[in-house]
């Protein structure tokens, strides 16, 4: 990833390189309140260039690296444009190939804060299957959601269409944030929380306690507040330190969303 700083007359000031010794690339840039920058692009994951990750980096006003983060899997993924949001956070769009169906290209949206902490990420595949989905530009809407323009390629019809999608503040285009490649598990799997409303202790019951089963708790803005591994059919979670308010509790296993429940904390 290469960035060049010039003055108002186009005179060279400084130049910086970031990334590995492979074919990394830069795509987007956004300002930070301290005069620095958030950079987006992709980073090579291994030497034969079969694996790429989405890359986000923060640098100061003179180009010194503050932090960097690579996000992805063992396929080719990458970020395009990055955007400053009205709440002080950032959103980045890109493309993502998941491990379940690596031939498909999913549109990718990630919200993160100035320190690189991921609030949430969403994947979108309009037609499903091996089709290609791309986001090209994003605008924040007055309701803190997003309107995004892109393109859809239906490979079965060899047809490409313009794509305009409206999302809420959690990146959802449908209820309960069940979007894209994150699919709902069958109904026979049980997931309950009680009491609801809750005050100090939350009781969790589920018939699904396989490896990599995780309960995520998000606040109403979509920021991840807590995560805990589910290792038995019954667990208790101390939530006494959570501020009163509405939360979303999402149980996942790998790439699957088992269920999302709204929780009222008193």
Description:
This protein is an all-beta fold and 266 residues long. It folds into two domains: 2-177, Neuraminidase, CATH 2.120.10.10; 191-265, Sandwich (Immunoglobulin-like), CATH 2.60.40. It is 0% helix and 55% strand. It is built from no helices and 21 strands. The protein has strands spanning 2-6, 12-17, 25-31, 37-44, 52-59, 65-71, 78-84, 90-96, 106-112, 118-124, 132-140, 146-154, 159-167, 183-184, 191-194, 201-206, 213-219, 224-229, 234-238, 245-253, 256-265. It has a five-stranded mixed β-sheet, with no helix packed on it. Strands 3-4-5-6 form a four-stranded antiparallel β-sheet, with no helix packed on it. The protein is globular, with a radius of gyration of 20 Å. The chain starts with a strand and ends with a strand. Residues 178-188 have low confidence and may be disordered.
